[in-house]
Amino acid sequence: MGSALHTYVRNHGTSGKSxxxxxxxxxxxxxxxxxxxxxxxxANANFDVHIDKLExxxxxxxxxxxxxxxxxxxxxxxxxGAHIQQLxxxxxxxxxxxxxxxxxxxxxxxxxxxMDMQKSLCDWMRTVYKTYFFEEISQVSxxxxxxxxxxxxxxxxxxxxxxxxxPYSEMMSEGRWKMEMMLTKGDEVCSxxxxxxxxxxxx
Length: 203
Hints:
Elements: E1 4-7, H1 17-36, E2 47-57, H2 60-63, E3 64-74, E4 77-86, E5 94-103, E6 112-120, H3 121-137, E7 154-164, H4 166-169, E8 175-185, E9 188-201
Antiparallel strand pairs: 1-6, 2-9, 3-4, 4-7, 5-6, 5-8, 8-9
InterPro entries: DUF1091
Pfam families: DUF1091 (PF06477)
């Protein structure tokens, strides 16, 4: 599949797109990490977040086994660890997809796509992973270098990674949110997660 990137940026000039893209990607990852751990997205003091749907999709057990450790440091800061066993080699025939969309709270309102991106795995490693994640993650894990592709079957460990969500809380806005992260091969979803949330101002 060819790679495509569509970003929707509200109230930002063209020069701010790279920065906004980085924040948006981090926000998707952080949100999904918090949800996968079963603790919900951390919002600021003005909003309540309700998880409407959380679904793992694909043949996850054929590709990965994993477990997590989790410790809450404060309302917006967490310490995490992960043990991930990648069971199959992943090469550039695989694609990473990320989607985020938002709709108004009113029933029937349509979702507006804010990010819809797909990249081959090697391209993802050399670009998104390298630019936004590798430097931070490499300090606390043996996660692969961004030049590693294909990714051999391996065991990965991350220890004492401190996740501070406070810088992202100001981005929270009311509405219905849909977020997806997928690893695919052709039309097959190998591993992924779909999350639907509702964000409302506190009563």
